[in-house]
Specification:
With 156 residues, the chain is mainly beta. It is built from one helix and nine strands; from the N terminus they run αβββββββββ. A five-stranded antiparallel sheet has the order 3-2-5-6-7, with no helix packed on it. A four-stranded mixed sheet has the order 4-1-9-8, with no helix packed on it. The protein is rod-shaped. It has one domain: Immunoglobulin-like. The chain starts with a helix and ends with a strand. The longest helix is centred in the N-terminal third of the chain and has 19 residues.
């Protein structure tokens, strides 16, 4: 009889310990998407034209994301703490400043991942100076929820 009490208490202790545990929450790859930009030829709009020496600098921090890179596309992060982000795009020592504005939309992924930020009502404008290497900007997608395809075309 005494052993039955101990067995019952031991069984109940293991039962409560086992049921009180929860599965490990692991976040697998949920991140705030970046803006994807592709570069095209201004004179032939359907032809991809890589940059030759592209440098991209974030403002106001002056962090360099790309340095003298030859590429036909880039992915740049947008600031999730304010409704705009500015970058200086330098091609062959010719700087152009891009201002990207957007509405912020937090999206709950899971308890492990928390929130990521989506960007809606996106617009892009380039500064107006006398020597623009960026001839035209075309916004393909005004929402940034994924970063697997281009959102912006830059013609140069």
């Amino acid at each position: 009889m005494k052993y039955k009490k101990y067995f019952l208490l031991l069984f109940l202790a293991f039962f409560f310990l086992w049921t009180s545990c929860e599965k490990d929450d692991v976040c697998l790859g949920a991140t705030t998407p970046k803006m994807v930009i592709r570069f095209y030829d201004y004179s032939q709009a359907d032809i991809i034209k890589p940059t030759t020496e592209l440098t991209v600098v974030a403002l106001p921090s002056k962090d360099t994301l790309y340095k003298e890179t030859a590429t036909d596309s880039i992915a740049i992060p947008l600031d999730p703490n304010q409704n705009f982000t500015e970058y200086i795009f330098i091609e062959n020592n010719n700087p152009d400043t891009l201002k990207i504005t957007y509405d912020l939309s937090p999206y709950f992924v899971s308890k492990a991942c928390g929130y990521i930020m989506f960007f809606d009502q996106v617009s892009v404008e380039v500064n107006q100076d006398n020597d623009l290497w960026i001839k035209q900007i075309e916004l393909i997608e005004n929402q940034i929820h994924i970063d697997t395809s281009a959102h912006v075309k830059i013609y140069h």
